[in-house]
Amino acid sequence: MHTLTPAHLMPWTVASPFRMQPGLSRLLPATDAAQPPVSPPPLFLRDAQAPAYAAQKQAVLQTHHERALVGQAEPAVLQAIAAAYAAQTGVALAPTAQALALGLQEDLVVLHDEPDAMRTRWLSVCFPSNWSPADKLGLDFSAIHAPVADNALLQAGGKGIVDMAFRQASMLRHVWLLTPSGDLPQHPETRRTRWADAEAQADTSGQRLLEQVFFRVERQTTLPLPALQRGVFFIRVMVCPLLAVLQVAPARAAELHAALASMTEAVVAYRGMAGVRPRLLAELDALQTTGA
């Protein structure tokens, strides 16, 4: 079993100039009468990698249960999540924290609608992208995104984002990353392949650094539960070797080059790529020239 997503199924939302921004869209059917009806994007993604994801989650929960499941889960919220999952996928999961943590390919965060703000009160996160779930418990939107570089657009729209996505309508957002590790779980306290390791491997093997890089996408969706004064945030992590993703469409190398080149120094540092961006840009430039 493997957890890599096939390249042609990886979402591609790379654009330039790169900006840290909400980028939200509603999970609703298209309403353009001139176009044929299109099914809305699903709240959940369940695919052929489901057994492998469950095995990876089981391994995380066996070794770092306290890092992955944080806070207190409520039976009514768990029941609502299980019902939504069954309605969309046809897969019935027990409405327990353990069953949902293992059965969903998504990680999830439950927020409580409290008098001052919506705050995180339960996190089931086995596959964090270099952040600690325990650090996010009890925080509101502003505090969660405070460490993010160039976060002005996110913070300015924070109140509206929370109201729309967690009180009114299910929403979709994609966040893409470049990482030297193909692992789904990337907790900051876990030793995994670092950029220095990837550079050393590329130099030792005579390969390009691009051949050591993975394209990582967080497919983020929301489920408002206003009757319970709760909202749920789902994170489906998808990973694929970068070169395979670039080969899906001829323009992608140029699009990624433009996005990387347009990132501010603060964003590059936040994403841990300060030492490798020049090399990645040079190799992407060469890739556009040679096509191989």
Radius of gyration: 19 Å
List the total number of helices: 12
First-residue to last-residue Cα separation: 29 Å
Mean pLDDT: 93
User: Largest sheet, order of strands side by side?
Assistant: 1-5-6-7-3-4-2
**Which strand-content bin applies to the residues?**
15-25%
Shape: globular
| Assembly category | single chain
Give the helix/strand class. alpha+beta
Uncertain segments? none
Q: Helix fraction?
A: 25-40%
Order of helices and strands: EHEHHEEHHHHEHEEHHHH
What's the number of extended β-strand segments? Answer: 7
**How many domain modules?**
1
Sheet bearing the most strands, described?
7 strands, antiparallel
What do you see in this structure?
The chain is of the alpha+beta class and 292 residues long. It has helices at 50-68, 75-89, 97-103, 133-136, 141-144, 152-156, 158-168, 195-205, 242-246, 252-262, 265-270, 277-290; strands spanning 25-26, 69-71, 107-113, 118-124, 171-179, 214-225, 230-241. The chain has one domain (7-26, 43-195, 212-243). It contains 12 helices and 7 strands. Strands 1-5-6-7-3-4-2 form a 7-stranded antiparallel beta sheet. Helix 10 runs antiparallel to helix 12 (277-290).
